[in-house]
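batch_manifest entry 22 of 60
target: N-acetylmuramoyl-L-alanine amidase
source organism: Streptomyces cupreus
requested by: lab member K.T.
priority: normal
notes from requester: please return tokens only, no post-processing; we will run our own comparison against the previous entry in this batch. if the run fails, retry once and flag.
--- input ---
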Amino acid sequence: MGARKASKDTDRRIGRRALLIGGATAAAGTAVLARDELGRLWWRMPGVEKPRKEGEVDFAGARWVAASDANWRRADRPDDYGIDMVVIHVTQGSFDSAVQVFQDPEHGAASHYIVRKDGHITQMIRELDVAYHAGNRDYNERSVGIEHEGFVDRPEGFTDEMYEASARLTARICARYDIPVDREHIIGHVEVPGTDHTDPGEHWDWQRYMKLVRQARTAVA
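--- output ---
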């Protein structure tokens, strides 16, 4: 969550893709774009969605606690929106307080996961769906958000158990969506364009974290 509450990802109507037609090459390109758009539209039609089970989690061992449906948007990722990024957050509060605000429909924001200091992982939004966590609509649509219990100015709260559990989670997400394990695709909330958040802050050990993610990703492979 960082220093301030994330701005809500308000919905918008689907815009019509502009197509430029000029010669055989352009026509072929247009056909490709049209197929892509039709594929995205198909997954947004009423009654067309992936099978779901109540309480199902995407990461084995995670506990399911549902966020308020005002803090996320139903989708069918990665078929309607490709996933190519993981965004790292810090709650700026306790684990319990983060769960509470994510269940509050007035909060306007929530992440897919919360990692507690002891390494326990709670999932509050399915990876299929768009969580309002980054304060940037495009980044919300293409990313999975992971909160970490603690404060940006208290590095002692970033425990070994937290780093290791979060790294396993991120590695599994990267494996599932073929996301490269690098700092272009695993970023902090502070790096999202347009954000006014500071998390995970200067005390988050990126070098250590990325090493753990790479090790866990190799184990997954």
